[in-house]
Amino acid sequence: MSVAPSPAPAQLSPPPQQPMRRFSVDEYHRMIEAGILTEADRVELLEGWIVAKMVHNPRHDATVDRTQDALRRRLSSAWRVRVRSAITTPESEPEPDIAVAIGPASRYEARHPEPGEIALLVEVAESSLPSDRGIKARLYARAGIRQYWIVNVVDQVVEVHLLPTGAPTAAAAYGDIRPYALGATLTLEVPDLLPIAIPVREFFLD
Q1: What's the rounded mean pLDDT across residues 120-126?
Q2: For residue 2, what pLDDT band results from cuts at 50, 70 and 90?
Q3: Chain segment 159-174, per-residue pLDDT in tens
Q4: Helix (H), strand (E), coil (C) string for 154-174
Q5: Residue 11 CB coordination number (10 Å)
Q6: Quick check: helix, strand or coil at residue 201?
């Protein structure tokens, strides 16, 4: 008896040039509650699109660890330093590497922090640098996040984004972007605390 040859593997078509469907934050939450999306899916909601998160290498993770440690040492117990935890904006639910949010931790047992509760967001960037400077900066500015830092591992610079427009358009942006190199000291402004000086060198591996 002759055996039919196995069919050739199907050639996957390229993704469509135009995305087909945006999802609201409520729809995204319902997919999570229904088990359609789980932690194993490693996605986040950015401007209505469900986007795969970047994989992490050891240098990235070590930089996140050093950055959150530098922040925790200087902040009072009234503030939480949340690592790779979601925040909720009107059209997005990103998972920044670090978020400094009003405490206590029990405040977020049934929901994620919202923009008015957040003093600072931080993204540690290598391959994700274009996205962190682009869509992440835009959606954080639109949400009115007062301070956004990109810890640029490639160039060993912290890019401090200030003065968000809060504009509900694709043109939302930060009005003041300042790069701080290794020898510099940057300042963290947190409500009810004096300005906090942090040497940039503390964020990077020796």
Answers
A1: 96
A2: very low
A3: 999 999 877 777 899 9
A4: CCCEEEEEEEECCCCCCCCCE
A5: 6
A6: helix
CA 26 to chain centre: 19
Burial pattern 123-156, b for ≥16 Cβ within 10 A else e, equals bbbbebbeebbebbbbbbbbbebbbbbbbbbeee
Q: Which of 92, 89, 86, 85 is nearest to 28 (CA)?
A: 92
For residues 130 and 110, give the distance between their C-alpha atoms in angstroms, rounded to a whole number: 32
User: What pTM value is reported for the model?
Assistant: 0.87
Contact criterion met (CB below 8 Å) for 59 and 176: no
- The C-alpha R_g of the chain, in whole angstroms, comes to 20
Amino acid at site 156: Q
Q: Which pLDDT tens digit goes with each residue over 25-50?
A: 999 999 999 999 998 888 999 998 99
Structure-block tokens of residue 187 = 């300042």
What is the distance between the terminal CA atoms of the chain, rounded to a whole angstrom? 68
- Token pair recorded at residue 173: 């942006």
Taking the alpha carbons of 74, 79, 84, 90 in that order, is the dihedral positive or negative?
negative
